[in-house]
Amino acid sequence: MSAMRRTLTLSLIAGALLAAPLAALAQDIKPRLIRFGYGLNENSNQGRAVKFFASEVERLSGGKMKVRAIGAAALGPDVQMQQALIGGAQEMMVGSTATLVGITPQMALWDTPFLFNNVREADAILDGPIGAKVMATLEPKGLVGLVYWENGFRNLTNSKRPVQKLEDLDGIKLRVMQNNVFLESFRTLGANAVPMPFSELFSALETKTVDGQENPFNTILSSKFFEVQKYLTVTNHVYSPWIVLVSKRWWDGLSKDEQKVLRDAAVASRDFERKDTREAAGKAVAELKTKGMQVNELPPAEAARMRDRLTRVNASIGANIGMDLWNETQAALAKLRAAPTVARK
Ligand code: TK8
Question: N or C: which end of the chain has fewer CB within 10 A?
Fold first, then answer.
């Protein structure tokens, strides 16, 4: 090897040695970018909470971590985002627990009709050991669950007729989430239930591909379903949680400090989100009436009939999620219901 070539080789090696720490340094300075997808509009309880989470992450990390919030299902519907997280192509999302049943059957616990009587019960179970146990089933599947947010108690809308009794649902083409409990539940009620991603719902209602759907008051308002749905029936048939998810592939590459930032920001966002969601829900019905929706409560006898029919799916939910989890949940709820409620917030 000539002297010149040796010098060249040496300088190339020296260059490579220098470049390595520089690259590491650059990575330290460049903020970690988190693509955070969600399904609703920016102007919704979901959008507001994602925004809050983003600012918390930035604050807690001193600007070293940055959330890019991408709403309105621009990164795809829930199921597609879940796959992107598992594959590592996207870092975070928030979406319905109901669309996760294909990944982990235990999530179907939350789809049980009339499982929770009120938000106090929902908070206690979701934030307690049972909520954590269900969340933990995601990890071996490539997803890390951080917290549950409130989507809310679901209510029924349609464009055909006011639902005053069970039989009014006969033949109504009703969009449901991509989830067997919902499908079975509404078929049991006599509706023609069709599973469909949320992102396709507005135009399906507009073009009358489906006649109706069910979602919490807030979503009916923020997604402008009042423009294409005349009748709203207050059923509160199930409490829907949302869940904040992280790609496990990506999560495993974070430092302990970075993971802590995300966990802390998630807990703060949960408290913000539930408060905001409950305040907004309290005002949403009046607003929906102003927008022209005709709202009715089911007469108590009809509500009881609906409840009776819907809870017929309970046995199959128990079998799917495992009887231990089912019984543990029922016992925890019984204990909560027996406890004095004076300490209620
Ligand atoms: C938004 C959905 C929505 C859910 C549904 O991505 O699909 O009806 O209630 O909140 O997750």
Answer: C
Residues 299-304: contacts with CB under 8 Å, at least 24 apart: 299/164, 299/165, 302/164, 302/165, 302/166, 303/235
Ligand 1 centroid – CA 171 distance (Å): 23
Ligand 1 in contact with 302 (CB < 6 A)?
A: no
In the reported structure, the alpha carbon of residue 46 is separated from the centroid of ligand 1 by a whole-number distance in angstroms of: 10
Instruction: Give the C-alpha distances (Å, rounded to integers) separating 39 from 47, 94, 195, 198.
Output: 9, 8, 16, 7
CB 49 within 8 A of CB 41: no
Strand partners, 276: none
* 218 in contact with ligand 1, CB cutoff 6 A: no
Question: For atom 7 of ligand 1, which residue has the closest CA?
Answer: 198
* Strand 239-247 to 92-96 pairing: antiparallel
Tally of CA atoms within 13 A in the half-sphere of 19 that contains its CB:
6
pLDDT tens for 205-220 read 999 999 999 999 999 9
**Which region holds residue 62: left if phi is over 0, alpha if psi is between -120 and 50, else beta?**
left
CA distance 60 to 33: 15
Give the integer Cα–Cα distance in Å for 113 and 23.
53
d(CA 261, CA 253): 14
Residue type, 199: S
Q: Measured from the CA of 197, which atom of ligand 1 is nearest? A: 7
Residue 121: count of CB within 10 angstroms of its CB: 16
Name the residue at shortest CA distance from atom 10 of ligand 1.
Answer: 96
pLDDT in tens, 140-188: 999 999 999 999 999 999 999 999 999 999 999 999 999 999 999 999 9
**Residue 151 CB less than 6 A away from ligand 1:** yes
Which residue's CA is minimally distant from atom 9 of ligand 1? 215
Tell me the two tokens of residue 27: 């990575």
Q: Is 177 in the pocket of ligand 1 (CB under 6 A)?
A: yes
Q: CA–CA separation, 159 vs 229, rounded Å? A: 5
